[in-house]
Design brief:
Number of helices: 21
Number of strands: 34
Helix content: 25-40%
Oligomer: single chain
Distance between the termini: 42 Å
Radius of gyration: 26 Å
Shape: globular
Structural class: alpha+beta
Strand content: 15-25%
Length: 674
């Protein structure tokens, strides 16, 4: 491998004061940061209002020193919106259009629905075997839109080598429907068309979520006289412009955790540690080594979906302050579903007492499961939706007061929860589920106070009755479950570099050893696993769990000042990073082919192919850099040749990979705003 550098150095322009905003599933954090002096000028937190982000963002900005707002030169946003939507299986309905390799129906391995396999095949080199059929495409998209599809994803075999077919399908779909289309080659250069298909599907699915967040942020900025541009943290911890983020939201998978890792290092200066970020919905764990966090080159795995989004190597589980606590089959469980705490319900909704009263009168119904005890409220969201009759009936009832699922089933005569047709109302944040959470338990035992402790206590008493445990004993047991799950995540992240740690769950020996490590030592032997580095905790709930969670590993828990807004600090101190690859492979008759761009690009010599590839990469990277918001022109080229030895001992050229990288400050977005 060899490296070369091209272009001018990074701009010397320096942004002095910036605003970092982190929109989490539960809280929205805001930090005014003096980048020049490396000082936090003010911080604030407010509840995230997912049905109207302007409310939560405005409440956070109201708490900041207003004199600094007009001086802000850049706003940087990190968010768990994409991650949470995928983990909780939410988003708009996407039609997946596939063009698998000729003669092989590997598309059947993709379980997602609705999907359709169409004509249009390329060989492994990107040469056309069968053209696309425009009439077939139009027929397919009409059927999908009739099935309530509101966006499309397209992926074809060898599409990363020659994207022409994907682009043709995209053009036809947009002409026919006017809807958004996400192509696999636009998001990933992996040759695995199935992985690109899933990545494109997830991107299309969450487009409205991030677009609405950015639009709401821009509205609030206008209201507060903030004229600066906006950049967004990607999953690899670098930045892109808000315009790019609106069409590539899948790249913000793990944006919040990436910003939290950057913030944790910025706040502590520690180069070697585990970083754990606990929010309202998820807990994310990453490892810092020599000041760097490794990227997961194979692609992030979020909510069971393997993507090819380059992101920090982070473990994510559905464990947070607002994770739903269930009691089913005589056992308690926590998450992964996030709900609003009962304490929040009691503080903000009149009529909550009536919903609790109904549950108290029918407690014996919930001995097998507490699911029907979840309480629904109507938010202040205003959506122009064509409602179905059952949706209208549900909203009519919730206009009066909150209702539990069980009471709604009784009043509507519905047989089961599925008959209530709640999905669309929840996806559009018109209604909100509430239930017992870790936040409620912290209210009850006096360690945290923000809302209605009495309401939380009464609801928890129902669980105490059903589990036949005294209240204090039950609370200690559930909180301990949360601590042990956090301990397991820390251990699994430490093992991630050496093995597949989740396999421990199915290993009887592993389970026995872990039991004695985390619970009580065996009388005949001691189990010890000692971490050599500390664990940095960030996020609002982490201080209640981390000190106990690290105790079995005999290491330190570090909770830095401003840990509760580390994400927002990490967001405003990040950089733009662009990377693109092209490949040179042997062609026929001694010629060379450049792969990774549209059309067949053949050259007589490798020097000509190499020169062309670098020129194309320079144009592509500079274009992406401008879109992302940096004026940096300096490109680092990395060249890697695959030249194995044949059985005769002769070297055989198989492929040259040329990688172009650019890193710079988001200064261009500031210049454009001036």
């Amino acid at each position: 491998m060899n490296n070369t550098k091209y272009g001018a150095d990074d701009s010397n322009d320096y942004i002095k004061i910036g605003l970092g905003v982190d929109a989490g599933g539960t809280y929205t954090d805001a930090v005014i940061f003096d980048i020049e002096k490396n000082v936090t000028l003010g911080k604030a937190k407010s509840l995230t209002t997912r049905w109207d982000f302007t409310v939560g963002i405005s409440k956070a900005l109201d708490q900041l020193n207003q004199k600094f707002l007009p001086k802000i030169e850049l706003v940087s946003l990190s968010t768990t919106l994409a991650t949470n939507a995928i983990v909780e299986n939410e988003g708009q309905k996407v039609g997946l259009i596939l063009m698998p390799p000729f003669g092989l129906d590997i598309a059947q391995n993709i379980s997602y629905r609705p999907k359709s396999v169409i004509q249009g095949q390329l060989d492994i080199t990107g040469k056309e075997i069968m053209p696309v059929n425009p009439d077939e495409i139009r027929s397919v998209v009409r059927q999908m839109t009739d099935n309530q599809v509101t966006a499309f994803a397209v992926s074809g075999f060898a599409g990363s080598i020659n994207p022409e077919h994907e682009l043709q399908v995209k053009r036809i779909v947009q002409e026919e429907t006017g809807l958004f289309v996400s192509c696999g080659h636009e998001l990933s250069d992996t040759l695995n068309f199935q992985t690109r298909a899933v990545t494109a599907m997830l991107n299309a699915r969450i487009i409205p979520r991030l677009a609405n967040l950015l639009l709401d942020l821009e509205k609030v900025m206008t209201r507060y006289g903030i004229a600066s541009p906006v950049v967004v943290v990607k999953g690899d911890g670098t930045l892109m412009s808000s315009e790019m983020a609106k069409i590539r939201p899948v790249e913000t998978i793990l944006s919040g955790p990436a910003a939290s890792v950057a913030g944790a290092r910025h706040l502590t200066g520690i180069d070697d540690a585990l970083v754990v970020d606990m929010g309202g919905t998820t807990t994310d764990t990453a490892a810092l080594s020599s000041g760097l966090v490794s990227l997961n080159e194979a692609g992030s795995n979020v909510g069971g979906h393997r993507t090819h989004v380059k992101a920090l190597d982070i473990r994510t589980i559905g464990l947070g302050g607002d994770s739903l606590i269930r009691y089913e089959r005589l056992q308690f469980s926590i998450g992964p579903k996030r709900v609003a705490p009962i304490a929040w319900l009691g503080r903000n909704w009149s009529g909550a007492e009536a919903a609790l009263e109904y549950l108290g009168l029918h407690l014996k119904r919930y001995r097998a499961s507490t699911r029907k005890m979840q309480i629904l409220v109507k938010t202040s969201a205003v959506k122009s939706m064509q409602l179905f009759p059952m949706e209208e009936e549900i909203l009519g009832l919730l206009e009066q007061r909150p209702y539990s699922l069980d009471e709604l089933l009784h009043l509507t005569g519905a047989i089961a929860e599925g008959s209530l047709h709640l999905q669309r109302l929840e996806e559009n944040f018109v209604i909100q589920r509430c239930g017992l959470t870790l936040t409620d338990l912290l209210h009850i035992n006096g360690r945290f106070e923000a809302w209605d402790t009495a309401a939380a206590r009464r609801y928890a008493e129902f669980y105490s009755f059903l589990s036949n445990q005294p209240m204090s004993e039950m609370i200690d047991h559930i909180l301990e479950l949360g601590v042990k799950r956090l301990s397991m995540e820390l251990l699994k992240r430490r093992l991630d570099d050496d093995t597949v740690p989740d396999k421990m769950d199915d290993c009887p020996v592993c389970r026995t050893l872990i039991h004695h490590l985390l619970n009580e030592q065996h009388s005949s032997y001691e189990v010890a696993i000692n971490f050599n580095h500390p664990v940095i905790g960030v996020g609002a709930p982490i201080k209640f769990f981390l000190p106990q969670a690290v105790a079995p590993f005999r290491t330190k828990a570090i909770l830095p000042e401003n840990a509760d807004v580390a994400n927002a600090i990490g967001a405003i101190t990040s950089h733009v990073f662009i990377q693109k690859q092209l490949w040179i492979v042997p062609g026929e008759a001694g010629r060379f082919i450049v792969e990774g761009i549209s059309g067949a690009r053949e050259f007589a010599g490798i020097e000509d192919a190499d020169r062309f590839a670098r020129e194309e990469l320079t144009v592509m990277v500079h274009k992406k850099a401008i879109e992302a918001g940096t004026s940096c022109r300096s490109i680092l080229f990395e060249t890697k040749d695959s030249v194995p030895l044949a059985s005769t001992g002769e070297a055989v050229f198989l492929k040259r990979t040329i990688t172009a990288s650019l890193k710079g400050r988001p200064d261009l977005v500031v210049k454009k705003a001036l």
